[in-house]
Design brief:
With 415 residues, the chain is an all-alpha fold. It has one domain. It has 18 helices and no strands.
Amino acid sequence: MTSIADPTAGPLPAKRPARGGVAAPAITFPVSGTERELRLDLFRGLALWLIFIDHLPQNILTWLTIRNYGFSDATEIFIFISGYTAAFVYGRTMQEQGFVIAAARILRRVWTIYVAHVFLFTIFLAEISYVATSFQNPLYTEEMGILDFLKQPDVTIVQALLLRFRPVNMDVLPLYIVLMLFLAPILWLMRRKPDIALGLSVLLYALTWEFDLYLSAYPNGVWAFNPFAWQLLFVFGAWCALGGAKRMSRILDSNITLWICVAYLLAAFWVTLTWYVPQFHHLLPRIIEQWMYPINKTDLDVLRFAHFLALAALTIRFLKKDWPGLKSPRLRPLILCGQHSLEIFCIGVFLAFAGHFILAEVSGGAFMHFLISVSGIMVMSGAAWVFSWYKRVGGKTGSGAKSQKAEADLAGGDA
């Protein structure tokens, strides 16, 4: 999910939290059934591809990413699916083995993501520093946000370990770490009172906007993705996984919902069109502009959230779980990337800077942009295939490994 340059981002502010509710019986999971939910893998893989493309300088493939046609982007997809899969995996563990075991496994996952973040930070820093030194171009250090590290490496490393300092494109993992850190108590409440848990999340979101709640970043500013606000999307994903989506099925199947979603998506597309075609700008009423802008990404503007909901509702309606295309070899690379999202995200960050460097040093026009984008996607897909192959041939030792593999399979990927 990564700081994605976006016309809807607005200024980086300091803001927002929440939750409220209704009672419901404790959530239970079916004991049988281990078939993957391939739609989750598919769209998480798609989100990773889109994030990689959005991190490259503007190019032809950038116009294929969803941020150019509405208010939301791939970050929303990634965070929602992360909440959904995490709740399904660890909610089942909590039901079968209790809160303590589930919390321990969640913390182990948090540690894995944290180690990946530190590893990514270290290698990314070395990559940028080497390129900047070798080509005698200090602009790379400024563009990638590591100038403060070169000035005060001792202080900056400590801040990086505290998740307060992050180079460009490394904002998603710290957000994911914080959200996962609080997953255990969220699941405990959601299994008993799911609507109350979701309501409290909404309340935190509202309070964040009202009282400007935020986490500060080093050396200045705030987190690019405010956890107090983005938790709403993560918790909503968890709520859907634990029965919320099923209870909303009648609403999602309604033709009224269909036309509301279509109308909103068309309206959002019209607004984004005015960003790229100045001739259309005067057709947007000024009163609408004053009410709507800035469409804040840092604090997950409600317009972004609504845009994602509209996209999700249409996807669920028209892309069924048993769609034969999910087994198509053409979609296999996307699905494999979604099944190894943590590793592929890290690789995508490295590739994005490499692509940025090549495009800055080599003047190749549109063809070079296209070639680098496609090459990066092919490398990510190849790496995902290798990870999948290794998992098949090397992950069959002991009942513990079997249990973890079954959990991951049920959730549709690595939680």
